[in-house]
Design goal:
This protein is an alpha+beta fold and about 500 residues long. Helix content is about 30%, strand content about 25%. The strands form five sheets. A five-stranded antiparallel β-sheet has the order 2-1-20-19-18, with helices on both faces. Strands 16-8-6-3-17 form a five-stranded mixed β-sheet, covered by helices on one side. A four-stranded mixed β-sheet has the order 9-13-14-12, with no helix packed on it. About 45% of the residues are buried.
Length: about 500
């Protein structure tokens, strides 16, 4: 057993050794505190930034270029979610309504049936069924006027390049158009069911219903087994969206659903609402009219439905990185008690920049930094114009950590590595798999015109403390491609060293 004197000498020696290591680049690289992998990427032409802090003590566990602002890609959604929770709260939901502009006589509505688009990102078939059945319960069997879809809560939404191209043709769901009246995320499902025997044609249908403005075509064959591979392309033809399917489905498989964006959110909303109402036995012979200006008087309240709460919306925002939810939520930030109509993406983005500036101004050390140079043009992060540093993002994470009311919903929405969402296949190596039980994080990825890879979130330590971290890597004009998978693995490895199993 060491004497007290020898223990003192030993401890002093260890302290000097640790101080010496922490003061040298070599020591930092050995302990992982310098994010050595990202540092190496930086030396090879990438732009990298990283920051990790113990949220209880304020101790900086690791940093590398923490104030360098880069493209955060979908990690931008961390800022959006925090701003939305602080503005609306986790229990907030949006109410969508139907109004009538005339009396109902003998089952006939002597006027228009007005649908007020409220900007609910979660207005899906389930909610539409509740809404339209209540209209039928009001005794309406025929609308003498028109089904009016009022979209005035949002102003003109300038589509980004992806949405502009998708107006003509799309093979994706993420490029769906935005509207205050949007339903079903502005996507339509093509349902492919196997035929009775191998070689038979599969059955094609549209979900929720066949519409006046949509059509499905193509040929999908049934084959033996239970494996399916179906491709769907949506094109705009005249006033119709045409969904063309190809491929094969297994005879023993369940129906396959493939979702594609529609070309016109307002037209689609009107067609879906009309179909739901007709299923309830309500005739609308004069069809649908889109109305973009605010009404002085909506009419008599007829039916309403509450959307899913903000906490539910955040799970779509984080776990599957839903850009439609993100952009709709950004637009909603442009509305307040003084502004009830005409919200835009640009206005919502300005609110996000203001929020980010406020966070940095009020942040304690070591989270403080200048707000000059911050760019938040998009809540979804689907642009290279957004510019944030790792310290900026961690400042938001620290602020949410201290928000006792909203932090549980914020944390719960972040996906768990190895289990769900965009981090399901992350942290698989022997050196990083211990973080699967401790970490929740939001990913970010863009590939054009240069790579942008990011990860931000929280990790629990063995002593119960929380760590907030952010790590990002960008390509440059000279070296646009840094290797997306390589960058992801580098970030995972750096975090594995920074937060070892024994911590």
């Amino acid at each position: 057993m060491l004497s007290p004197r020898l223990r003192l000498v030993r401890n002093c020696a260890l302290s000097m050794l640790l101080l010496g290591s922490a003061g040298s680049p070599e020591g930092l690289a050995q302990t992982g505190k310098e994010f050595s992998g990202l540092k190496s990427m930086h030396a090879n032409g990438a732009i990298t930034t990283a920051f990790a802090v113990n949220l209880r003590t304020g101790e900086v566990l690791g940093e590398w270029n923490p104030d360098t602002r880069v493209t955060p890609a979908s990690v931008s959604k961390v800022v959006l979610a925090a701003a939305a929770l602080e503005r609306f709260g986790s229990e907030y939901s949006i109410e969508t309504r139907f109004y009538s502009t005339g009396p109902v006589k003998n089952g006939v509505l002597k006027g228009d049936l007005v649908f007020e688009g409220a900007g609910d990102p979660s207005l899906t078939n389930e909610k539409l069924w509740f809404l339209t059945t209540d209209v039928a319960r009001a005794g309406i069997r025929k609308v003498e006027g028109q089904l009016v879809v009022n979209t005035s809560r949002f102003g003109y939404i300038e589509p980004d390049l992806d949405r502009k191209l998708a107006a003509r043709r799309s093979r994706h769901a993420y490029d769906s158009p935005l509207s205050a009246a949007a339903v079903n995320f502005s996507v339509m499902g093509v349902v492919v069911s196997p035929g009775d025997s191998p070689g038979a044609r599969a059955h094609l249908a549209l979900e929720p219903y066949d519409l006046d403005t949509t059509r499905v075509q193509g040929s999908v064959k049934t084959q033996g087994g239970d494996l399916s591979r179906v491709a769907v392309t949506r094109t705009r033809t005249g006033l119709q969206d045409v969904f063309t399917a190809s491929g094969h489905v297994g005879q023993l498989s369940w129906p396959t659903r493939v979702y594609r964006s529609v070309s016109d959110a307002d037209q689609y909303a009107g067609s879906v609402l009309k179909a739901f109402l007709e299923k309830e036995g309500i005739q609308i012979p004069r069809g649908v009219r889109i109305e973009r200006q605010p009404r002085k008087d909506m009419g008599r309240p007829l039916a309403s439905v509450e959307g899913f709460p903000m906490a539910w919306q955040l799970m779509g925002l984080f776990k599957v990185s839903n850009n439609f939810i993100a952009d709709m939520m950004t637009i909603l930030l442009d509305l307040d008690d003084k502004k009830q109509f005409g919200a835009t993406l640009e206005g919502g983005a300005n609110q996000l920049e203001n929020y980010m500036s406020m966070v940095l101004q009020k942040a304690p050390k070591p989270y403080q930094s200048s707000a000059e140079g911050i760019v938040m043009q998009s809540g979804s992060g689907l642009t290279h114009e957004n510019k944030l540093s790792a310290r900026d993002v961690v400042a938001v994470l620290q602020r949410m950590y201290l928000n006792g009311r909203e932090f549980p919903s914020f944390l719960n929405a972040l996906p768990v590595p190895g289990a769900e969402g965009t981090v399901k296949k992350r942290f698989q190596s022997e050196q990083t798999k211990h973080l699967r039980d401790r970490l929740r994080a939001k990913t970010g990825t863009l590939s054009e015109p240069h790579d942008a890879i990011a990860l931000a979130g929280y990790s629990r330590l063995k002593d119960g403390d929380w760590v907030a971290f952010c790590a990002m890597a960008n390509g440059t004009a000279k070296k646009p491609n840094v290797g997306i998978e390589f960058a992801r693995e580098t970030i995972d490895d750096d975090l594995g060293r920074l937060l070892p199993p024994e911590m």
